[in-house]
Write a structure and sequence with these properties.
It contains 4 helices and no strands. It is mainly α. The radius of gyration is 15 Å and the shape is elongated.
């Protein structure tokens, strides 16, 4: 059995975390405007935060704000032909 870290490197974790965080914003706003508790979006934010924290801790030297767009390019280049 392979390690979890072999499937999820720091750049991929950062990209997935940022995307989840951005996609949960409309869900939070919708729940608030309807007067509901944003339970699903809160769970999504927790998952996104955990992925971002994992990415920061596993990359040597961590991430700066300028490194995040580079991570998106690296992940996109990996999956696009």
């Amino acid at each position: 059995m392979e390690k979890f870290s072999e499937y999820l490197d720091s750049d991929l974790a950062m990209v997935i975390g940022v995307v989840f965080a951005l996609l949960s914003i409309p869900s939070i706003l919708s729940a608030m405007s309807d007067g509901r508790a944003p339970r699903a979006s809160a769970l999504t934010i927790l998952i996104a935060g955990a992925l971002i924290l994992y990415a920061i801790q596993t990359r040597p030297g961590g991430y700066s704000i300028a490194d995040v767009p580079h991570a998106f390019v690296v992940v996109a280049a990996r999956f696009l032909p």
